[in-house]
Write a structure and sequence with these properties.
3-stranded antiparallel sheet, mainly beta, 13 strands
Length: 260
Amino acid sequence: MRTQRRLGSAFAVSLVILLAPAGGAAAQPAPPGPAGAPVTVTLLTGDRVTVTATAGGRQAATIDPARWPGRHASFQTSYAGGDLRVIPSDVIRLLPDLLDPQLFDVSALIRAGYDDAHTPTLPLIVQHRGRAGVTSVGTTSVGSAALRVDRPLPSIHGAATRLSKVDAVSFGAALSTMPAGVTHVWLDTPVHAAAVDPAGKPATLDPNLTQIGAPAAWAAGLSGAGVRVAVLDTGVDSTHPDLAGRVAAEQNFTASPTVS
């Protein structure tokens, strides 16, 4: 997911905020290649998986293993719900406690547009142990692998980062020795509120969306792009990254002179 946050609602309405549009609609993830066209994905371990659709519709994988001194890895290939998963043997013990299993769901990585043809980086959320973690935008490291910090996440002692696929072998080598201070690594995957996901599979909808007729609105071509949104709440932090620079107007309906 790109990092997501929700603003809580309350029964005592005291504040109205209008959010100005943050720009054009977000780009949709790249779909898998057509049948027979190979698509290559570099995993965070540096292993390169080339996927080709077979005549029967199943995806076949060819693996180019990453190499570093002392590495002797095999690969566990499996299918779940039609998705291809490839897990190196030397990191299996790290799933799911330290590594997010989605990092090895090759089909999902392709659907999200994280294949090598569409992006040179892999978005990760890295959580640290017993320290504040990354506190500013810049760079951080896991072992000898450098990661670009897109956003610090102090609430979980971590950061939303991007790993260059060129540096993925160094990241994989660091994982093989259980890097000190790292408690979890997640794929920072996008989330889509749609009746179907980008691959055309049924998506799980909040019952409220069905109740208010959202699927019918989407089918009619209504996406909400360019529409201002009013947020009713008992208070928000207007300096929060999700709101900073996007508040078009606000009104305080309480006796308190402070709106935050």
